[in-house]
Amino acid sequence: MRSRTIHILNGPNLNLLGKREPEIYGHDTLEDVARSCATLAMELGLETALYQSNHEGEIVEMIHRAREAAAGIIINPAAYTHTSVAILDALSAFDGPVLEVHISNVHKRESFRHHSYVSLRAEGVIAGFGIQGYELALRRMAVLLG
Ligand code: CA2
Fold first, then answer.
1. Alpha helix (H) residue ranges in the chain
2. Whole-angstrom Cα distance, residue 35 to residue 33?
3. Claim: this prediction has a pTM higher than 0.85
4. Do the Cβ atoms of 102 and 132 come closer than 8 Å?
5. Which residues does UniProt mark as catalytic (predicted)?
6. Which residues, 6 or more positions from 78, have their beta carbon under 8 angstroms from its beta carbon?
7. Helix, strand, coil percentages, rounded to 5, for the chain
């Protein structure tokens, strides 16, 4: 049977979520995101596994592992969103749906945050809904996977 596991990948500095800059990123931690997504996934007949790395190459390898283990990827590449062709290329070698999430509204921020390499591959993008964006992406993933 095909995997129903969704890998939720997070880029640099998101390990600090809930610990710094709450005015931009809120008070919830990445562990809170992992918990709320796991609970929602059960309702949706999915499973989730959440990972975070501060290193571009490690994120590329996470995406390679998802090729074998995940039905879909939800990714917040953080600052690598705006710089990483390597992450875009890795995602292009993944067969399932890819959804891009940003906690903040990147379009309301500095112009360098307005461009995303990852958006060239993503089926959809959610930005500015706080950590609720991860849950919204998971609901969309359930629709896409049927
Ligand atoms: O809004 C988002 O989710 C971002 O992907 C977050 C990135 C930023 O570079 C993107 O432009 C938009 C930054 C993640 C840093 O996360 C922190 C969380 C708490 C405290 C400090 C950093």
1. 22-25, 30-44, 56-69, 85-92, 132-145
2. 5
3. yes
4. no
5. 25, 102
6. 10, 11, 12, 13, 14
7. 50, 20, 35
Rg from Cα positions in the chain = 14
Tokens of 73: 């990827």
Q: Is 51 a catalytic residue?
A: no
Q: What gap in Å lies between CA 61 and CA 42, rounded to an integer?
A: 27
Which amino acid is it at 114?
H
CA angle 105, 114, 64 (to 5 degrees): 90
Residue 32 annotated as binding site: no
Is ligand 1 within 6 A of the CB of residue 17?
Answer: yes
pLDDT in tens, 13-64: 999 999 999 999 999 999 999 999 999 999 999 999 999 999 999 999 999 9
70 close to 50: Cβ distance less than 8 angstroms: no
Q: Cβ-count burial of 95 within 10 angstroms (0-12 exposed, 13-18 middle, 19+ buried)?
A: exposed
